[in-house]
Amino acid sequence: MKIFVVNCGSSSIKYQLINMEDESVIAKGLVERIGIDGSVLTHTPAGKDKVRMESEIPDHVDGIKKVLAALVDPNHGVIKSMDEIDAVGHRVVHGGEVFSESVLVTEENLKQIEALSDMAPLHQPPNVAGIRACQKLMPNTPQVAVFDTAFHQTMPPVAFMYGVKYEEYKKYGIRKYGFHGTSHRYVAACAAELLGKKPEDTKIITCHLGNGSSITAVDGGKSVDTSMGFTPLDGVLMGTRCGSIDPAIVPILMQKKGLDNAGMDKYMNKECGVLGISGISSDFRDLEDAANKGDEKAQLALDMFCYQVKRYIGAYAAAMGGVDAIVFTAGVGENDIGTRAKVCKGLEFLGVELDAERNNVRGKVTEISKADSKVKVFLIPTNEELVIARDTNRLCGK
C-alpha cells in the first residue's frame, strides 16, 4: 500500500507519500503561505533534488491539488496516477473524549471532529479543511484521522482531572487531554525495544522538545500523565507559549494591558515563552548564540526551560514509582546537545549518568547515557508521519 500522509496547519500542508511494504518515504514536501502572498510548494522526491514551485495557493483544496499534481508530474513525480494512492492518513490535533484511537473518516465522525474546534481553534479547522480537500479530490480513497490526543486517553482521572467543579468537566469537557501523542507513542515504543523489554514491562519518560514541548510518563506502554493540558498551551514554557502559569495572572494582565479574550490568547500563545523572556527569539539556536555572548535574559530563558523539563522528569519518576529510560526527541531534543546535558545534570540521584561524548550527537538514534547508567537516556528522532501511516494501513489494509 501507498499511504499519503497529510498534516494541515492554518496556512501550511506538510505531506509524505510512504510505501508500506518497506515503510520507505517515496516523496515528501511542504506547502507554505496558503491564502497569503508568496505561496510556495517545496517537493522532494526520494533520491532526487528538491523542487520549489511558486504560485498562488488560495486554500487547502488548491494546496492539496498542487501536491497531487507534483506527485504525478512526469519530471519530478513518483507515481503514474492518483490511483496508486491507496489511502490518506490525516493528523488531527484534538479527539476530545470522543476518539481514543484512530478512525476511518465518515461524515458523522468528521462532524464530531469539527465540533471539537473550540478545544483547538488554531489547529482543528485546518485539520478538517485538509480532510475535506482530500475527500473532494479523491472521493473514492479512504481517509483516516489520527489524533494527537488519542495516546493520552489512557491517563487515569487522578491525572487528567482539574480542580474545577465536576459538572464543568462533564458538561464542557474541562480536563487534561495532552498532545504530541503520535510522537510520544513512537519514541516510547522504540525505547522499549532498545531496552530489550516488552513495552508493558517499562517505565519511560519521553521529552518532545521543540517550539512546542511536552513531557509524558509512559508506564507499561501507556500514557499515564503528560505536561500539556486542555490545550497545547499548558506545561513547560515553549518557543512562544507561556506554559503553566498561575491562572489569576490572566485577568490581571487583561486589565493592565487592556486585552480582550482574543488578545490575551494571542499574548499567551505567540508572545511569551523563551521569546518573551529573552526578547530575542523563539529559536533555541539564537538564544544559545546570544547567551554565549553574555546575554543574561537569553541565558535565563534557556535555564528556565531546562529547569522545567527536569522538574517534570522528577515528578513523573515519582508518579510511576521509578523510571527505566528518558527519551529526548523533536527539534530541540534531537539536536540541542547543551539542553540535553543541562536537563540531565542533577538527575544523578535517579540513576541518570549522561555520557558527554555519547551526547555529542544530533538527529540519530543513540544511547547517550554511560554504559553503567541505571536509567538509560536515549536520543530518538521522532517519526509521527510513520505512526499515521501505520494506523492508516492497519485500518485500510483490509
Automatic annotation (TrEMBL):
Question: In which pathway is this protein known to take part?
Answer: Metabolic intermediate biosynthesis; acetyl-CoA biosynthesis; acetyl-CoA from acetate: step 1/2
Species the sequence originates in:
Acidaminococcus intestini (strain RyC-MR95)
Gene3D superfamilies per the UniProt record, alphabetical: 3.30.420.40
Instruction: List the NCBIfam families hit by this protein, alphabetically.
Output: ackA
Which InterPro entries does UniProt cross-reference here? Ac/propionate_kinase, Aliphatic_acid_kin_short-chain, Aliphatic_acid_kinase_CS, ATPase_NBD
Q: Where does Mg(2+) bind?
A: N7, E384
Q: Which domain of life is it from?
A: Bacteria
Subcellular location as annotated:
Cytoplasm
Catalysed transformations (reactions): acetate + ATP = acetyl phosphate + ADP
Q: What is its main location?
A: cytoplasm
Active site located where?
Answer: D148
**Catalytic activity, EC:** 2.7.2.1
Identify this protein by name: Acetate kinase
Its function, per the record, reads:
Catalyzes the formation of acetyl phosphate from acetate and ATP. Can also catalyze the reverse reaction.
- Which CDD domains does this one have? ASKHA_NBD_AcK_PK (cd24010)
* GO MF assignments: acetate kinase activity; ATP binding; magnesium ion binding
